[in-house]
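Q: Got a minute? One more chain.
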Amino acid sequence: MPTNTGPSPQGLPEDAHPRPTSAVELLALLRDFDARAVRTSVAVVRQVTRSDLSRPTPCSAWTLADLLAHMTVQHRGFAAAARGDGQDPAHWTAGPPAKDPVAAYAAAADDVIAAFAEADTPDRPFALPEFTAARTFPATRAIGFHFIDYVVHGWDVARTLGLPYAPEAALLRAALPLAEAVPTGDDHRLAPGSAFRPGLPAGDGASLLDRILTALGRSPSWAPTTPC
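A: Always. Here it is, folded:
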């Protein structure tokens, strides 16, 4: 996850529609993009069956069950942060495995979308202790973190299941500058539990999605039988 950068009206692509001209408009646009990315991920997760939970994923040593638990608790943590209670580590700690991980994920997704809708000022402080306990982050930055996470995690689940993954082009255009702004220090990206790995070359003619994935250390050609 990014820790020292975030979106600004100038940080989104020129063809973003509508183009934000203020922090308030940027917040509204990011909330909309994030909700669409999260709902796209829910549609993919709904394809998961119990027999899929032990599958390997593009996320290092995580199985699909591990990945879903991470995605679910991150929604809960960000929702708590949006409501002013993100500093409590309990919101960021996965409990016992859910009896129905798919339903648990969908419920957490609804919760974070609703919580972000309540964040009505760009500078509303989000406490994100998994990033740092030393300071809070303004709403626009925090929601930008969440947005890029779920564009990529949606791909993680889809690739694990061997399903196509094609978010709206507008989401990918908005996500690319955020992905490229994530700090690239290998020490951070190689730390245990890091959501992103060191960047990879995208290659000539790479698609928007492939450029996002490689910027965050994902190989677009990853398959369950190949290394991440």
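A: Residues 1-5 have pLDDT under 50 and may be disordered.
Q: Perfect, thanks.
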